[in-house]
């Protein structure tokens, strides 16, 4: 920073306004480029963070679906057993022996 100040002061002392103006424009361009680089890095970091969140959400959704599927399979098996029990009970009420039902 001190180097730039010295150059600026020297150019003003020598009354070289065009050089001073070019120097000023160059400094502005460097500042803008620096800001653009910082914004690009920030956007990249935000994008990475969003991807990590998205991956986590998708993994959690997959885990929830797996748990739901296991629960549905368990309930289906339980309902089938209850259905078979109900059929057996109805058959016994109607007088059919249990041995005939197992065939």
Bin the helical content.
over 70%
Biggest β-sheet strands, sense, barrel: none
| pLDDT averaged over residues | 86
Along the chain, the helix and strand elements come as: HHH
Note poorly predicted spans: none
Quaternary status: single chain
**Outline:** rod-shaped
- Count all strands and give the number: 0
Structural class: mainly alpha
| Proportion of residues in β-strands | under 5%
Span between N and C termini? 95 Å
Number of helices: 3
Rg, Cα atoms, Å: 39 Å
What would your notes on this structure say?
This protein is mainly α. It is built from three helices and no strands. The protein has helices at residues 2-13, 17-93, 98-101. The chain is rod-shaped, with a radius of gyration of 39 Å.
What is the fold's blueprint, element by element?
Elements: H1 2-13, H2 17-93, H3 98-101
Structure described in brief:
With 103 residues, the protein is mostly helical.
